[in-house]
Structures are given as structure tokens and as C-alpha cells.
Amino acid sequence: MARSRSAWRRWYDAWEAQQDRFIPNRERRFRTMLDLVEAQLPARFVAIDLGCGPGALSARLLRRFPRAGCVAVDQDPVVLKVGEGALGSVGGRLSWVDASLGSPGWTDALPVRKFDVALSTTALHWLSPTRLRRLYQDLGRLLRRGGLFLDGDRIAWAPEEPELARLAEKVRQVRFPGAQRSGEWAGWEAWWRRAEKDPELGPLFPIREARGTAHPKHTEPSLAFHVRALRRGGFRRAEVVWRDLENVILWARR
Ligand SMILES: C[S@@+](CC[C@H](N)C(=O)[O-])C[C@H]1O[C@@H](n2cnc3c(N)ncnc32)[C@H](O)[C@@H]1O
What we know:
Layout: H1 5-22, H2 26-40, E1 46-50, H3 56-64, E2 69-74, H4 77-87, E3 94-98, E4 115-121, H5 129-142, E5 143-154, H6 162-175, H7 180-197, H8 205-211, H9 223-232, E6 237-244, E7 247-253
Parallel strand pairs: 1-2, 1-4, 2-3, 4-5
Antiparallel strand pairs: 5-7, 6-7
Helix pairs in contact: 1-4, 1-7, 5-9
Bound molecules: S-adenosylmethionine (SAM).
């Protein structure tokens, strides 16, 4: 018998809880991103959620904008299964796509060829500089002229700003004192350990292992890199419009 939506919803809620624990002001960041969408787009629009996980951003967007549609993209079959199980297609307004952002030909899997806004939360820092550069080139083609890009993510200070990096780390210790720091990661790792034991999610683990979807090993691209790559991708402006230390919303207009 197929698992019920409310059973999948428990996995979704557990994902939300572990993300909320280690991203300060996560909800405020979502809200600000959606405020920016509301201020700049008409009521009916099509969005793409890049590195959607189980759909935290897509769900909030579709709840707030009842005439919008959204395509949610991720390369991890486990989070896609949870998201589809918990949220479904939201009355035909949400499509789930299994694709690896920035890989050659990833856009072929998309059911729609033009978008008004591309959004992402806590995902693009996973991409290597090469992937990110390619992704921004592709978004330059996928977004309509005047379309928006909004990325809520941790973008590390540039290496020439060691003082700011040290300051941000000290604030982190104030916010998540002592043992809680490992507790943040414990929440993430515990979610994955539990998922691996689940009879419906466990069989998907060899696929995610084969795709190498674990956390990145490369150096995370700097803000200057993002801005340069967006401009090369055809974006006219790219600016940080919201910041809480290294946690930013990067905004760009096509
Ligand atoms: C920390 S999760 C964030 C998920 C969701 N956006 C949220 O805010 O809850 C990062 C997600 O990015 C996805 N991801 C990382 N690199 C990716 C890539 N190259 N293509 C597609 N998805 C990717 C991961 O599989 C993971 O689901």
C-alpha cells in the first residue's frame, strides 16, 4: 500500500526541523525572498527552485502565490521522494525534476523552457565553480528578459577578509554555544541515518552514492565569483540585498 501523505509529511517536517536548527533566520530569509518576488512579479508567474531538497521553498512560494507554478529540481532521489510524497503536485502547479544543476544538458529534463524567477536556498554553495558558471549561463537562457534570480545561501567572506571570517565564526559560537555546534550537524546526519533505514528511502541510497551527492569537497565560490559569473551569464545587475553575516540573499536581474 502506498505510504500516506501525512507519513511523508513527518519526514518533511523532520527535514525542516534540522535545517531550522543550523541556519539562523531561515524563515525570515524565505519571507524576504518571497517579498522580493511579490514586489517585482505579477500574480501569475513560473518559478524554478534550484536544489529544492524536499521542497521547503517551493511549498512556501506556492502557498503564498496561488496563481504561480513551480519546477523543483534536485539530483538526490531521497529528498525528491520525500518532497513528492509530502507535497505532491499542489494541484498541478508543482513539477519535480531529477537533474544535476550545471551538468551538461541538465535543462533537457525541464518541463518548461521559460521562467520568470529562479530561486534557491542553501544549495548553490554545493556547486563547484565550473558547475556554477554553467548554471548561470543556462539561467541566462531560461529566464525571460527582466526575470529574477534569488539565492538565499551562505556565501563565505573573500579570503582577503580574514577578520570578517573570524568575526562571523565568533558570532556563530555565541548563537550556537559549545556542544550545540556539533548538535547542528548531528541533526543533519541523524536525518540521513534514519532515512537510510527507511524501507522506501533506503533502496535509493545506492543511487545517491553513485551520483556522489554528499557535501562538496571544493572551495566554495566567493561573492565576487557569483557576481562575475552572473554578469557573464547575461544578468544586468547582481547585488546582495539582505545579509546576516555570511548568510545572504543574492539578487540578480536578467
Ligand atoms: C541543504 S539542501 C537544501 C534544500 C532546500 N533548498 C532547502 O532549503 O531546504 C541542498 C540541496 O541541494 C541539492 N544539490 C546540491 N548540488 C546539486 C546539483 N548539482 N544539482 C541538483 N541538486 C543539487 C542537494 O541534493 C540538496 O537536496
